[in-house]
Structure formats: structure tokens, C-alpha cells
């Protein structure tokens, strides 16, 4: 069967996000019903609807202080903080941590959530936690990551972030952007890099949809597809500013991770590559990145596929995400079946060891699988790798 373009198959108009919706709905990536002054989505989510500019993003409706994830107290408006509670402050703004946030700080923030299996990260995280009390944008980002991690643990509740997670995420983004517009000194560099990494994790772990049917690639194409890649790129653009490998950086211990991210892939051929993968990508001894668009991505997938799950690190998984540019990126955007297969294999493998990859893989893997079954059913060499195929068991092997 010839591949069919999904856009021509679908009769009804796809669900699009509302153009005139409130900002909360845009942030939460849900369709706003536009009922004014308060939309129904915000009411049911428990936040103050914000068509108006003077209402902050994702403010909880409740007046019950126990429900406040975080209380914002601007200097001069309220009394100075009582000494018994926990605060984060940059000297001009004070943020009080309520009991739930304090619990999250105790439970998660001293640990490495982004790279849980890396013992070197224990020290990094302790020092980052100390910095979070003096850099509210980092505290908000860290709390949002902790809430995302909770989302990973409670598998049943789907992928939609909670009101608290959205709130901390949006607060962090707003404060972070404000901070980046000011003069950056050496002492600011570590909190900036820590926040950039956390924001990239948040955008990766929050897919646009919670069901495979509404998720990429099954949903109709939109310019915002693969938006998480853009976040990754903007994180890397902060590299120059934060310089995480400078001698006094607390991230210096991660030099191996950074080296893995940039680890050179073979320049030519299929040496070390899994043979079935080379075959499906039409790679051979003379292949290079210039004559085969799958070259880098296939090598990157092959490298992690060979490793036991416990040995798959963030650095190694990023070799693949960094291969998504140029012709391979265009193929992925056009939903090319081989590019989708490589993405699928990467999700399956990386999602087993890295929780924030799992959160996106949870919806996008079944979505890729259904897409390939629907529109490329006759592509037997691709289907061999997918559930029910001859190579499926080999791919799902769990060393
Ligand atoms: Zn709305
Ligand atoms: Zn609203």
C-alpha cells in the first residue's frame, strides 16, 4: 500500500488551540472555550482566568493557604518573613514555601532528579539547592521538576501537569527571562545553567497531548511540532553565558557527561552499527552524513541500543537529540517512516532509564506506532522492529 498523507485522509477539521483564548489555556496547551470573563477550563482547573493582563499566569483560585503552592510576598507590601518558615529570596522579592513545597524540597531537591544514577551529581544537587534559596527562578524551576517527577511516579494520572507544576514552571520562566536581561556576574552562572537544564527537562517531559490519538505524529502537522527541540537549542545557547565547564563551576564534575554529548560518531560506514538498523536505513560501508540523512541518528540509536539500560546516561541520549537537525530534522517533520522508526527506538531505549524521556515516550511511542500502522502498513522492514514484528523482541530486550 502506498503511504497516504494523513492530512488528506482526515475529513473533519482538526482540533486547534483557540486564537483568542486566555493565557492560562495557552500555557497549559488546552483549547480555551473563550467564555468571558472567566473561561470554563480555568474554573475547572482551579486557577484565576487571565484574559486580562493584570492577572498573573496560573494563579490558584483558592484562598485556603494550605492550597497555595507558593506564596508571593513583595517587599514593603507585607510584613517581613517570620523566622520559622522557609523562604527563597533574591533580596528584593521574598517567596515563602508552603508545607507541600517544603516537603518536596526535603524529599527531592537534594537528590539528582535529572540524572538519578550519577553519584557525582549528589554534591552538585546539594549546592544547587543552596543556590535555589537565593535565586527564586531556580527554586521555582526545581520545584516544577520535582512535581514532574511525581507525575512520572504516579503513572495512572496521565501526563498532564498539575496546577502547581504549571505555576512553578511559568513563574520560573518569567523570573528567568527577567534575570537574563540584567547584568550577569560569575555568581549567577551556576543558577542560570541549573535553571536552563530544568526548563529543558520540563518542556521535554510535557507533551502537547495526553492521548496518542491527539499526540505527534498522529495529530495533524502544526508549526509547533517538535517544539521541545527549540527549548533544547535555547538551553545550549545559554552555554556560552553560563560556561558550565569553567574551573569554578559546580557543573565541572559533569565534564564526562558533556563529553559524551559531543562524543564523535563514526565519520563513515556502518562499523559498530546493528545490522538490521543499517539495512532499514540503507546504510553501507560508503555511507556518510553527507550521502545518507539517517547516518548520525542511526549511529546514535545503535550506540545506546547496545548498552544495558543502567548504563544509558543523559549524555548518551543527547547524542541522538543533537543529531536532529538539517535533512534528518526535515524528514522527521515530514513524518518520514524511517525517521519515525529511529525516534521510536530511541524513545523505547532512553525512556527505560531516564524518567523525563519516559514521560513523553509514554504518549509519543504509541502514537508513532499507530501512525506507521495507519499510513505505512506495507513497509515491512520498518514494521519488523515494532510490536508484533520479527525484531520486536530483540528491540524490547532488557539487558
Ligand atoms: Zn481559557
Ligand atoms: Zn481561562
Task: Describe this structure as you would to a colleague.
By secondary structure, the chain is mainly α. The chain has three domains: 1-61, CD2-Gal4; 62-67 and 75-253, no CATH class; 263-396, no CATH class. It has helices at 6-9, 23-28, 40-45, 99-109, 121-132, 136-153, 163-180, 186-205, 227-237, 239-242, 255-261, 275-280, 295-305, 314-321, 326-333, 337-353, 355-375, 380-383, 392-396; strands at 70-74, 86-89, 93-97. Strands 1-3-2 form a three-stranded antiparallel sheet. A hairpin with a 3-residue loop joins strand 2 and strand 3. The chain is globular, with a radius of gyration of 22 Å. The protein is built from 19 helices and three strands. The protein starts with 5 loop residues before the first helix and ends with a helix. 41% of the residues are buried.
Key descriptive features of the protein:
Zn(2)-C6 fungal-type domain-containing protein, Zn2Cys6_DnaBD, 399 residues, zinc ion binding, nucleus, disordered N terminus, CD2-Gal4, 3 domains, mainly alpha, three-stranded antiparallel β-sheet, 49% helix, binds zinc ion
